[in-house]
């Protein structure tokens, strides 16, 4: 079943509160009180992740003052939203885009929801970059917003830079940046870092943490970058 099926209804009664709760409440209106808590068991981590992506994508789409058609298509394609679910997803996207609340409260709430799951938060940043790249160019405003979201998530500069570097093709990436290491680190320490990152970004682990199957492809790209960086460093250290 798609994570988008009955997304709005499925979130009714889920203890989100905060800006996400207010956003959903403004869409659902009086239905919240009438539905009570009967939907609590239906609101899954995948739905929370999906809602976070919709809202942050909406905020990102107007970061540079304009919403491009390519970015909207990227949101639809990246999140694999089926045609029959576009209407309800569009309601959330448009509401988030039009409201005066900035992205910061949402980012802080996401950080709280996924506290202790840095790998999941990194995946949000990764996908935001994908969406920003959709029109062929990441504007300075978009980059600054994603960087600030990363900071609000509690990611370090090394973690953020690793995400940015990992999005490059294997022949252009700096392997040390990807593995959050330095050229003068010994191979044993770098290998430990490689193994740690490989575990954290393994698709199966991300799925268990609430990252939906529909968006897991970006984590596979991250894994390929991690493996490529390790291969390059081994060759460099052997010379």
Question: Based on DSSP secondary structure assignment, what is the total number of beta strands?
Answer: 0
Query: How big is the Rg?
Result: 19 Å
Q: Which class best fits the helix and strand makeup?
A: mainly alpha
Helix content estimate: 55-70%
Structure, explained:
The protein is mainly α. It has a domain at 1-114. Helix content is 65%, strand content 0%. It is built from 14 helices and no strands. It has helices spanning 7-10, 18-28, 31-35, 45-61, 69-78, 86-98, 104-113, 118-132, 140-153, 157-166, 175-178, 187-200, 203-209, 217-238. Helix 12 runs antiparallel to helix 14.
List keywords for this structure.
mainly alpha, 14 helices, 239 residues, 65% helix
Topology:
Elements: H1 7-10, H2 18-28, H3 31-35, H4 45-61, H5 69-78, H6 86-98, H7 104-113, H8 118-132, H9 140-153, H10 157-166, H11 175-178, H12 187-200, H13 203-209, H14 217-238
Short structural summary:
65% of the residues lie in helices and 0% in strands.
């Amino acid at each position: 079943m798609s994570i988008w099926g009955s997304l709005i209804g499925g979130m009714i009664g889920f203890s989100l509160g905060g800006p996400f709760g207010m956003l959903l409440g403004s869409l659902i209106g009086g239905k919240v009180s009438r539905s009570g808590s009967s939907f609590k068991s239906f609101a899954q981590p995948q739905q929370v992740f999906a809602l976070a992506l919709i809202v942050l994508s909406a905020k990102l789409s107007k970061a540079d003052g304009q919403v491009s058609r390519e970015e909207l298509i990227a949101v639809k394609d990246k999140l694999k939203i089926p045609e029959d679910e576009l209407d309800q997803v569009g309601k959330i996207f448009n509401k988030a885009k039009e409201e005066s609340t900035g992205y910061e409260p949402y980012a802080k709430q996401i950080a709280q929801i996924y506290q202790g799951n840095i790998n999941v938060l990194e995946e949000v940043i990764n996908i935001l970059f994908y969406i920003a790249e959709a029109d062929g160019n990441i504007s300075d405003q978009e980059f600054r917003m994603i960087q600030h979201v990363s900071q609000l998530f509690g990611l370090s500069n090394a973690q953020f830079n690793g995400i940015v570097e990992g999005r490059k093709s294997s022949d252009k990436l700096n392997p040390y940046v990807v593995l959050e290491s330095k050229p003068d680190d010994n191979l044993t320490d770098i290998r430990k870092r490689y193994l740690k990152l490989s575990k954290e970004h393994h698709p199966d682990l991300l799925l268990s943490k609430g990252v939906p199957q529909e968006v897991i492809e970006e984590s596979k790209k991250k894994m390929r970058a991690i493996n490529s960086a390790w291969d390059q460093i081994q060759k460099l250290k052997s010379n």
